Structures are given as structure tokens and as C-alpha cells.
UniProtKB/TrEMBL annotation:
Residues 129-222 form the Rhodanese domain. PANTHER family: RHODANESE-LIKE DOMAIN-CONTAINING PROTEIN 7-RELATED, THIOSULFATE SULFURTRANSFERASE/RHODANESE-LIKE DOMAIN-CONTAINING PROTEIN 2. Pfam families: Rhodanese, UPF0176_N. This is Sulfurtransferase. SMART domains: RHOD (SM00450). It comes from Microbacterium phycohabitans. PROSITE patterns: RHODANESE_3 (PS50206). Gene3D superfamilies: 3.30.70.100, Rhodanese-like domain. The lineage of its organism: Bacteria, Bacillati, Actinomycetota, Actinomycetes, Micrococcales.
């Protein structure tokens, strides 16, 4: 049985001291023997960590004790070994770069659709009001090539900063439809949904991203695997490293 717990999480929350937090979190995660990456910015936190279950969960519990991170939600998966070479804690301008300062999820989330609701919509072929549902994959093209939702729009972007221009170029494909943006864990599709709403599109984010969908709905409406940014390379809909990884 796999003994290494992998956890991913992010939260858009205002931070006025990301540099000071960097030192504290580096010390706490290091003391617990964790490896992976923690990104901090004035807009929040994004992390991917692995280690023994007690130490990973202990670190997350300590993090949530800070009122700014109390709402942090994690996604767990398992592996036979730690899929990270070292621990990195970095301060960035954005925890996920979009280069659109007017998009501020730390001030309020875009409306989210649960995996259960999206499953109902996809099963029936329309949302609860009978509108056509369009899925927009906000990930990079090479990630999409590992797997995506059946029928999802893929604009072949090579970095997330290209998403706004792609959305404008394909604006007519979204008009009058219920749009659901999705990504690996939720962070990119949260910004994407806010951007689309600013542009007048009826957009929602898939709550929990693809990994949350796998946990709740398995392989339903999904083709392939999901690329992840660690040594496992990709996870299947059972949240296990795909064969050969």
C-alpha cells in the first residue's frame, strides 16, 4: 500500500507579509520532513507537498490555525515515494501568473459549480435552465494532451498568461451559454472564471478542479489522465499515478 501522502491546496486570501511567512513556513515544513513547493504572494498561497501522512496533515492543521488560511481545502493522493526532490518556498508576484491585476480573486471568488452539479448537467446535456453547457480547459496544451473532458474547448495556449487573449478571440463560442472553466486543482480556473465574468460571460469554475472531479465522479465524462507537476507525471481518475509513471 502506498505510504506517502501527497497534498495540493491553494487559497486566494490577502497576505501583507509573504516574505515573513516564507521563513516561517519553510522552517515548519522542513522540520516535518516535507518536500514540494509552497508559493506565496499578496493574493494568497499555493502548495504541493508530500511526506508521511501525520506530518503532512499536521502541517496543514497548523497552517489552518492562521485565520487567513482557515478556509484552505486540500486534495490528497498517494504514492510509493515522495515525488519531489526538495522543499522550495518562494514569494511570487502572483501564486498563478495571469498578468491581469484587475482580476482579484482574493476579494471574492467567482461562482463555483460542484462536481455533482456539473455531472448532472453533463448527463442531461444542459444546465438546470436548459442552457447549453460549454467546458473550457484553462490548462496549457501539453497538459490537455494527457486528458480532458469530452467535448471541452481547448484553445492550445502555451501559458496561462495567454488565456485572456484566447478568450477574447473565441468570445463568440461562449455567447449565450453556461461556461464552466476547469483546471488541475482549481487555481487557474478560478482566475479564468473571474476574467470571463468581467468580459460579460456567464462563467463558473469547477469547484476543486479535475482532481476534485476525480475524487467525486471518477472517470465520468473524462478521457485520459491528468498531468501533474511532479515526478508522478500524471494521475488516472482513481488518483493513482498512471502506469509507467
Amino acid at each position: 500500500m502506498a505510504s506517502t501522502l501527497n497534498v495540493s491546496a491553494y487559497l486566494f486570501t490577502p497576505l501583507d507579509d509573504p516574505a515573513a511567512l516564507r521563513s516561517a513556513l519553510r522552517e515548519q515544513a522542513g522540520a516535518r520532513g516535507l518536500r514540494g513547493t509552497i508559493l506565496l504572494a499578496e493574493e494568497g498561497i499555493n502548495l504541493f507537498l508530500a511526506g508521511s501522512p501525520d506530518e503532512v496533515r499536521g502541517f496543514i492543521a497548523d497552517l489552518r490555525a492562521d485565520v487567513r488560511f482557515a478556509a484552505l481545502r486540500t486534495k490528497e493522493s498517494w504514492s510509493d515515494a515522495v515525488p519531489f526532490g526538495k522543499l522550495l518556498v518562494k514569494v511570487k508576484r502572483e501564486i498563478i501568473r495571469m498578468d491581469r491585476p484587475e482580476v482579484r480573486p482574493q476579494d471574492g471568488r467567482a461562482p463555483a459549480v460542484s462536481p455533482e452539479t456539473l455531472r448532472r448537467w453533463l448527463d442531461r446535456g444542459a444546465d438546470d435552465d436548459g442552457r447549453e453547457v460549454v467546458l473550457v480547459d484553462t490548462r496549457n496544451a501539453f497538459e490537455v494532451d494527457y486528458g480532458t473532458f469530452a467535448g471541452a474547448l481547448d484553445w492550445r495556449i502555451d501559458r496561462f498568461t495567454r488565456f485572456p487573449d484566447a478568450a477574447k478571440a473565441h468570445r463568440d463560442d461562449l455567447a449565450g451559454k453556461t461556461v464552466v472553466s476547469f483546471c488541475t486543482g482549481g487555481i487557474r480556473c478560478e482566475k479564468a472564471a473571474l476574467y470571463l465574468r468581467n468580459e460579460g460571460v456567464e462563467a463558473y469554475q469547477l469547484d476543486g478542479g479535475i482532481l476534485g472531479w476525480f475524487d467525486a465522479q471518477g472517470a465520468a465524462h473524462w478521457n485520459g489522465d491528468c498531468f501533474v507537476f511532479d515526478e508522478r507525471e500524471a494521475l488516472d481518475p482513481a488518483l493513482a499515478a498512471r502506469a509507467g509513471s
